């Protein structure tokens, strides 16, 4: 088996309960002296001699007089230092020696976040090079739903793996294969429209964007569940984006393997929904294409007719993601689901606005936004509501066609892209995420590379959003 053919065998699971597990005492910096007063003098002397101050992310091992380690300490800093990050105990998971640990002294309201972070600290992307995951394993804290967190961690790992895989090994065909594997795992139904069949089945913009690539464009359609409200997830699956004839410069092309991050995040969320057996009817739509350069590539100035009949003037072939999403959204709207959500690595403007760590989203549904914002805070998956600012509709109307895929002027690029997509969602309650899908700097539980954004917040909010 080649490195490229390697399949993941790692699982992100909690350690089984054991009386031999080492206690891991979580201590805030301003509580250290109080805690030391409850300990024997040899322990106090050892801690003071090691210089442990309970700063955020610090660890210490405490031995007995014979040199056997009897406990570990994890510094939990101060509220101010914790506010600047998340998954703080995941740093301990990466520094403690191999073994099983049970948490003591952690605020129960932080247990779920920290337990999930510990699981995610075990993630490595080792398809092309051997990597060493954290070897310290955690026993699920009391009151935490261990099975639920393991499903969530597996969904996040799926998202990361798909984004991290380079386009040579994650083109439209491989993305389809990943969808089929997920469907088989959860007994979901799946169908694929591919190549010229896209024209026959009225997906003209998906075909136009992907027709120049060696791998044919396709629309992947997966369904699961027979009861409950209907949820449709639409994920942008541009497996590589050269920019088309409006070719990107090299510096902008380097991360374009992640341009299918919307599809990857949708699939991770779908795994969570199906793995937790939520009582809803799930549909996943992924237009999978590569935006390539060839003699038959779509051109600036072309006017395309979308599935719903709207015409679109192409003023920049590098604004292709909204085109493939448009056809998929139009299909999704035809079934009038109770909620439709799109996720896409759509605009650089969103990154300029909120940076790489926030997942900006758009919705006209105030109740959904309230549920989503509250859920995001509970599960440490930050999101930020952006405006569907209707007065900007004129900016996406070029005159020669119904819509412009790349309005001139450079203003409100993420907003105008979202408004473009809203034209294809019909009357269905609709939420759009303009995510980054990449962690540029390693952080606890979040190594540099592909990352899910907004999926856990959505999972937490769905019961309220859909009245489950």
TrEMBL record:
Cellular component, GO annotation: cytoplasm
Pfam families the record matches: Peptidase_M17, Peptidase_M17_N_1
Name recorded for this polypeptide: Cytosol aminopeptidase
InterPro entries: Leucine_aapep/pepB, Macro_dom-like, Peptidase_M17_C, Peptidase_M17_N_1
Keyword Manganese: yes
UniProt source species: Roseovarius aestuarii
Domain Cytosol aminopeptidase: 316-323
Native organism taxonomy: Bacteria, Pseudomonadati, Pseudomonadota, Alphaproteobacteria, Rhodobacterales
The keyword Amino-acid biosynthesis is annotated on this UniProt entry: no
Family designation: Belongs to the peptidase M17 family.
One GO MF term: manganese ion binding
GO biological-process terms attached to the record: proteolysis
EC id: 3.4.11.1
């Amino acid at each position: 088996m080649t490195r490229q053919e390697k399949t993941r065998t790692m699982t992100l699971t909690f350690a089984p309960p054991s009386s031999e597990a080492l206690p891991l005492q979580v201590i805030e910096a301003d509580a250290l002296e109080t805690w030391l007063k409850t300990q024997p003098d040899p322990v106090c002397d050892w801690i003071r001699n090691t210089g442990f101050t309970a700063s955020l992310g610090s660890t210490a091992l405490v031995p007995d007089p014979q040199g056997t380690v009897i406990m570990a300490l994890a510094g939990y800093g101060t509220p101010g230092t914790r506010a600047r990050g998340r998954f703080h105990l995941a740093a301990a998971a990466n520094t403690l020696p191999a073994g099983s640990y049970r948490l003591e002294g952690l605020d129960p309201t932080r247990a779920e976040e920290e337990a999930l972070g510990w699981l995610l600290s075990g993630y490595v992307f080792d398809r092309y090079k051997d990597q060493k995951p954290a070897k310290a394993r955690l026993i699920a804290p009391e009151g935490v739903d261990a099975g639920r967190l393991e499903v969530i961690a597996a969904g996040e790992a799926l998202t990361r793996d798909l984004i991290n895989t380079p386009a040579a090994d994650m083109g439209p065909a491989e993305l389809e294969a990943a969808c089929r594997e997920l469907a088989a795992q959860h007994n979901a139904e799946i169908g694929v429209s591919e190549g010229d069949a896209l024209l026959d089945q009225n997906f003209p913009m998906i075909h136009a964007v992907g027709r120049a690539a060696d791998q044919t464009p396709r629309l992947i359609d997966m369904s699961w569940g027979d009861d409950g409200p209907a949820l449709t997830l639409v994920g942008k699956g541009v497996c590589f984006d050269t920019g088309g004839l409006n070719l990107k410069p090299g510096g902008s092309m380097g991360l374009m393997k992640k341009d299918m991050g919307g599809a990857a995040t949708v699939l991770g969320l779908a795994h969570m929904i199906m793995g937790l057996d939520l009582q809803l009817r799930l549909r996943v739509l992924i237009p999978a294409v590569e935006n390539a350069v060839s003699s038959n590539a779509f051109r600036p100035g072309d006017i395309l007719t979308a599935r719903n009949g709207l015409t679109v003037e192409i003023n920049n072939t590098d604004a292709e993601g909204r085109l493939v999403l448009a056809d998929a959204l139009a299909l999704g709207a035809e079934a009038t689901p109770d909620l439709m959500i799109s996720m896409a690595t759509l605009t650089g403007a969103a990154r300029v606005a909120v940076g790489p760590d926030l997942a900006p989203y758009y919705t006209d549904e105030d109740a959904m936004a309230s549920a989503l914002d509250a859920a995001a805070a509970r599960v440490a998956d930050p999101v930020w509501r952006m405006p569907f600012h209707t007065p900007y509709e004129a900016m996406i109307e070029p005159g020669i066609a119904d819509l412009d895929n790349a309005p001139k002027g450079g203003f409100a690029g993420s907003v105008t892209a979202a408004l473009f997509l809203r034209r294809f969602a019909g009357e269905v309650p609709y939420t759009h995420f303009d995510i980054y899908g990449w962690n540029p700097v390693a952080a606890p539980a979040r190594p540099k590379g592909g990352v899910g954004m907004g999926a856990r917040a959505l999972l937490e909010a769905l019961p309220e959003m859909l009245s489950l």
